[in-house]
Amino acid sequence: MTTTNGHLPALAAAVLQPGFVGTTPPPWVCRWLGEGLGSVVLFARNVVDTEQVAALTATLRAERPDVIVAIDEEAGDVTRLESVHGSSRPGNFALGAVDDPELTEAVARDLGAELAKAGVTLNYAPDADVNSNPANPVIGVRSFGADPVLVARHTAAWVRGLQAGGVAACAKHFPGHGDTRVDSHHDLPRITADRDRLDACELAPFRAAVAAGVQAVMTGHLLVPALDPHLPATLSQRILGGLLRDELGFSGVVVTDAVEMRAVADRYGFAGATVRALAAGADAICIGGERADEQAARELRDAIVAAVVSGELPEERLAEAAKRVGQLAAWTVAARSAGSAGARAAADVGLVAARRAVRVTAAPGTTVALPLTRAAHVVEFEPLRNIAIGAETPWGIGGPLTELLPGTSTVRYAEPDVPADPGAGAGSRPLVLVVRDQHRHDWMRAAVHRALAARPDAVVVELGVPELVTGAVHLATHGATRASGQAAAEVLTGTR
Prior knowledge:
- This protein is of the alpha/beta class.
- The chain is 39% helix and 11% strand.
- The chain has two domains: 8-337, TIM Barrel (Alpha-Beta Barrel); 358-493.
- Helix 9 (237-247) links the parallel strand 6 and strand 7.
- Pfam families: Glyco_hydro_3.
């Protein structure tokens, strides 16, 4: 866009956090870094391993030494750095089940050290949502739990740990995505709680994050009528300015959830939502989960410039947003220069934490024997994927159980494929039924019921929220990470 306000394109670029495709930075990203772009965000498509990410970020830093490199690494079911193999750490729900804030801080600090080594400086985590609605389709095990006091203390611990590792934390999804049945990737969730309930529940972890010195907060695309009856939080000055800034006292960077998500893009447009978010008080616009090219970034940059020229977006507001992004960039440079990124934990803290999170429930008088001592048959029931979790990210216990009990077989069924007797392939071998959020899926509950009717000695392993405990022996991992699967296999075989 040609404009007499020649500084505006650079200001507009400074507030964008675009993604891109590839394991090396494309030419347009490198060019934009010289033209004002202040940040980029990495996804699984950009990651091979830590060494490759370090080379990628070094290339970015050669173009702009203070570039903010963000990633969406929750170190649980939602992982980008370890998307190919699954996370070597348990997620928030498992840490909440253990309820040892020192352990949570240690896990986050270990993650921070790994991210810092890879050159990442901002992490879109922790998830500070209170999962008060068990039917929530998008949060679940990404939350520390359903108790706001517990979630608050672990959110603070996670923030302290990650930032001690040298990486800026970003608490999400403000003002709280836990009490909803709608996924904001697809539509606009509505949070119906009154203000007293919001203060007591949803807002408690964000207050704790601010008190812990969190450097960034990510908005949720949520309609919360008690706070603003008309606009989603991302676009609401009442929520971003009046609540987050004035009441909670947050002075860091407000980052939007991906602005192409349908909750806002379908209603206000890709560019329209961006301009409205900045006007409402957001400082950085996350894009590129689905739109990851120069055309998308240019569309938003030009729309921001046009909005300033037309008077729709005050230039002072854009300059304020760019200044805050610059302050965060300075924090990350200082963290790197000070060498605050400590060494990785000496012990395998992720697996240690996952082991501590496993819970076994046995029905009174059960005759099911653990540990398993011979090859088993594992049936894994696969629900529709939570869009926040990468399709490429593996899960399950069949693999680690086979390593411990050679000869173990595994089958996996999605809803349309479940046979009348899902456990029939076991024969006389031990049968292990693996579920994820069984309480949310009628078909999965029915399949498990049929399998248990034929094999009441089967063990049920829940890798999601253990809202429903079934079977004579029920094992809950509180997450489906690689570490959690390994921990479950160890319990089943008595090797730990």
